[in-house]
Amino acid sequence: MTNGARNPWVIAPLVAMAAFMEVLDISIANVALQHIAGNLSAGQEESTWILTSYLVTNAIVLPISGWMSAVMGRKRFFMTCIAGFSISSLLCGLAPNLALLILFRGIQGLTGGGLQPSAQAILSDSFPPHQRGMAFALYGMAVVFAPAIGPTLGGWITDVASWRWVFLLNVPVGIVLFRLIHAVVSDPPALTVAREERRRIGFSIDYLGFSLLVIWVGCLQFVLDRGQQDDWFNSPLIIGMSVASVVALAAFIVWELGQDDPIVDLNLLAHRNFAVANLLMFVLGFVLLGTTVLLPEMVQRLMGYTATLAGLVITPGGLTIIFIMPIIGRILSHVDARYLIAAGMVTCGLAIYHMTGFNLQTDYASFMWARIYQAVGLSLLFIPINAVAYVGIPQIHSSTASALINMSRNLGGSIGISVVTTLLARGAQRHQTELVSHATPSAPAWHRMIESLTGLFVHHGDILTTAGTKASAQVYSLINRQALMLAFIDDFRALAVCFLLLAPLVFLMDKVTHARPPAGAAH
Fold first, then answer.
1. Which residues form the domain of 129?
2. Does the pLDDT at position 1 exceed 60?
3. Top-confidence residue, 35 or 523
4. Residue 267 lies inside a defined structural domain of this protein
5. How many domains does the chain have?
6. In terms of domains, do 216 and 295 share one?
7. What are the tens digits of pLDDT across the range 430-454?
8. Residue 121, class by beta-carbon neighbours within 10 Å (0-12 exposed, 13-18 middle, 19+ buried)?
9. How many angstroms separate the Cα of 503 from the Cα of each of 283, 447, 506?
10. How far from chain centre, in Å, is Cα 110?
């Protein structure tokens, strides 16, 4: 135990709550966008910058958080992030106009980016090896539950109070966490010695590496967040941002690999387990956030669910993960982690494939149980993937490794959301074209339906011409719904196949039993 005589189980819920607060803020604001736009007299398109500004700055800070911890000290960096996140949340809640809200959201993302990897590293160094599985299970329960409860909580707060409380809620929580973490957390002696040695010999800031990182990640996040809205590569701005991102990434890799003190240590990816685990974490983020976006959107657009009810479709899955994760934490030391990961990927893939059986008559219980089925698979992935990832990684690099694997998950999630949204829009158009081609007066089924609906409207008092117009409109509306339903099914099928095909990659990693759970576990 590296925090003196302090009980690590006092530390665990505090750092988990800090990460929970940051993850929650990614999803909780989404459902309030319409209210924010209306209150600040902004258009719907303008209001999406509230999300974009947060995601861009958050993505930039995440990969350099390990370097920041090494320079500032992990505890000091963690507390700085909590303070900055709380202050910027207050400013967001008090913002008088959209421009300032976007600015403050950018600052919120900037200060919140270091919370997750720092919290994970603190947990790793606070527990003896035999307790780390359960410690990270507790952490995982908090962090995984955040995106599950976010839309429901955000909708409820917006409905009963105001969108401003979505942000103001962070302030009292941040104040309490800041004081408690100051009292109970301390840096491990080895990290303190390393930091003092770095200060003694002096250190230089990798300005070029940081600049390339900002261009690469910032432009990529912009493209992913705005691409579908701006019609992707039909937009000169999206093309320019994409080129800038690719060029900056290539230059960043070449530059960082040649530095003695890189701002992001890419040499860690030379460890096979760590490299494969990053790929699996990328895929996990891709599929997890992709389905988390698709399922609520489907029930709202096709079934007429409210935002709160749509959130309640997702929430039971989060509760399932909370129940199962402690079990995984206990058995991890006795089972080859690769088998748990493979079982999780197959279970999750089959669960998503089960969603391709949804139709316009599917009820709430079926949606809920499908998500719970998927959650069982997800419960087998978070901790084991990271347990395998950190085998062979020196403890002095745990913060950097945690930053990289979290970045992989975040990038996977951003790309996943962008891809499924694009496939959904284009799939709906494709299916609509196909269905309309069969809806002609010469088609007997179309003719019978028009006659039936026209007779129904006439029976309710419409004249024949009005009834015919209403019947045609009704058929067109049904075609649109069916086309959209088919597009959702296509997306679920693609995600399921992606998961199932990549499951064998697990066995490229070395066998791991009795592994030391890593700084990035549960993510």
1. 1-203
2. no
3. 35
4. no
5. 3
6. no
7. 888 887 776 666 666 666 666 666 6
8. buried
9. 10, 48, 6
10. 16
